[in-house]
Records
---
Amino acid sequence: MGVLLIPRLTLTLTIISLFIFLSRSSSQEILINNAERRIDLSTHIVKVFFTLKVENIGTNAVSEILLAFPPTQADHLAFVEALATTGKRKKKTYVPLVVKPTELPDAPNETKYFSISLVNPLNSGDTTTLEVLYVFTHSLEPFPMEISQSESQLVYYRDSALILSPYHIKQQTTFIKTPTTKVESFTRLDPTNRAGTEMKYGPYEDQPPYSYSPIIVHCENNNPFAVVEELVREVEISHWGSIQITEHYKLVHAGARHKGIFSRVEYQSRPSFSGVSSFKHLLARLPPRVHSVYYRDEIGNISSSHLRTDSQKSDLEIEPRYPLFGGWKATFIIGYGVPLQDFLFESPDGRRYLNFTFGCPLAESVVDKLTIKVVLPEGSKDPSAVVTFPVEQHLETKYSYLDVVGRTVVVLEKKNVVPMHNTVFQVYYTFNPIFMLAEPLMLTSVFFLFFVACVAYLHIDLSIRK
Ligand SMILES: *[C@@H]1O[C@H](CO)[C@@H](O)[C@H](O)[C@H]1NC(C)=O
Ligand SMILES: *[C@@H]1O[C@H](CO)[C@@H](O)[C@H](O)[C@H]1NC(C)=O
Ligand SMILES: *[C@@H]1O[C@H](CO)[C@@H](O)[C@H](O)[C@H]1NC(C)=O
């Protein structure tokens, strides 16, 4: 019996692994006819726009396409988005596709993968065009690592001239856009051309799977390397008319470290030469109809901020007490209120929900660690958050001075946040309107107790005098 069982088990396992192999073997079934990659190095956030025309040259339908990244890039990958395009030119339509990290059993050189799920499987002989956007943070390495006030900032960018892919690529071209025309050096892999702020690698023909050819670009980049090491945004809902937002920032200039002394005289008299990589203004994009805006640091209120509002947004321009040079930090708080009716709604099933923006209001910034705390009104129940990308979630309780049972706080946490994460999220909850009376009731009872205490005191006082 046992002797018979083992071969049968092995056979079953073989069939299972064969099946897994078949459904995964798409790398032989997919051919990339044409791939174009545009790498934008114009800020400190590296954006890659990747267009690929894929063809199913196998016999079975294929429902997922793989994207490959070397492990060092995968560590800095903040965002991936894929769209399927159909139609040409003006009639082009885009269909968003689901992209998920995935693993392959024999990934060469620890390649990391993402799989794009096609809406309709690609049948044998069919082609489709995909547009992918991916974003890297902390991928421009300042070199020299330290610069003085009068020097411009130079950075290294490392990549491969050939696109890393598990598929054969028939023809490919990579364009790299530099912030300025000042390029110290770049690796050549013929054909390579450079004109103005653009470098062109390719076209390269018939590259087999996992082709790789490292390149280094050394170029000038004086854009603000604004990195918020930690951002905590507290969104407090009061059913009495307003939502109060308090944001705690720990900001650092993540570019080349400043060396030598800082001369404010030189900085102010020669602004186009001195401290070109430093920044002294920051733009925070807040919702329209904000009120009670403040901006303060550990010393106190900073009055040098300007608020411009229109019907779409409010732009708050803030100025830290000193300009930020490489390695310098600033800690500050921005607070504001927004009308309840702009962000709090009732869903068809009777629950209430907050519809608010995720991410960081500071323009073109990277947040290493973001925490959003949504403080629900007292008496709220069954909270649930809806975010379109993975975040860590947990609940806390917060007590403020008039609370009876405390408030539920929905805590959302995410690392490596870029402006592409500034999309809406929702927090749903149920609420018993009887709790609307809790605060006034507390106020009245506090007042009443105070009154009783006064009367009692007077009474004792009077009886003693008698
Ligand atoms: C893995 O990396 C080594 C050295 O970096 C390279 O020579 C080799 O071709 C790579 N292997 C594959 C399958 O890409
Ligand atoms: C700071 O500004 C806020 C809002 O304008 C105000 O309520 C607060 O009293 C100010 N604090 C100080 C210390 O000036
Ligand atoms: C949330 O607000 C955005 C606009 O700010 C709107 O497009 C979206 O439909 C809203 N979502 C929900 C679930 O109400």
---
Amino acid sequence: MNFSFCPLASGSSGNAYLVRGDEGLILIDAGISCKKLCEYLEALGCGIKDIDATCITHEHTDHIKSLAAICKKHGRMSLLLSKGTDEYLENIAGVESRILMDAENCLQKVKDLQLQCFSLSHDAAEPIGFSVIKEGRKISFVTDTGIITNHIFDSIKDSDTLVIEANYEEGILNMSTRYPYSVIRRIGGSFGHLSNKDAAKTILEVIRYRKTQGVLKPIKIYLAHISRNHNTQVQAYMTVKNYLFEYDIHEEKDFFLNPLDREFNLQEAIMIAI
Ligand SMILES: [Zn+2]
Ligand SMILES: [Zn+2]
């Protein structure tokens, strides 16, 4: 079975992920330029026209930068998004079908891939996160949310691979003089982003849940949307790893942990097994 993904970009300068099954190819967010996206897809052995569906989490530029351009280039793109995001984006040329997802309509099939959405807590019209499931395996993408609600946790707790936001380190954000205080409060607020510690707490609960279900295999964790100003890849990794260590949860035994790079590395263009 082929079920794999590739982070194409992660962070405030752009977000995009590719998920591939045996038949289906899904793009989650289109927050990088069309030129870069085409280049990255080519490195992975596919092109824009091979994409079966594009899922949009919300309307912020770092998630939709090239959406109009790729839909135009594709010509028959299928878009999956919430009603609120759709209203905000209005008419995009080249879209063949738009599937509005919400709590009642949260499951969709794209060829051999099953899509599931859940609501996020973020300062956007109607932000949603996505999970992709194939033959009992599941990957979830949880970024751009200020808090992990019970609804989010229930949607992601049975994931085999978890891409979770670790946007800022609390101490660095609180000391920041880079932005006005209102912006700092927005980032750290319940409609902003997750901190390293928020990510760590969520990962701990997911691992505990897995143990109650008798799942012994380590979960694959990818730390995403890491801030350029209030965090570093090493800081995010260390905060999460150290927090879990306190609870006797260990790397390699219980989890694999990777902080994602902001930009795609053309030299390491590979799909990662889920
Ligand atoms: Zn974002
Ligand atoms: Zn956002």
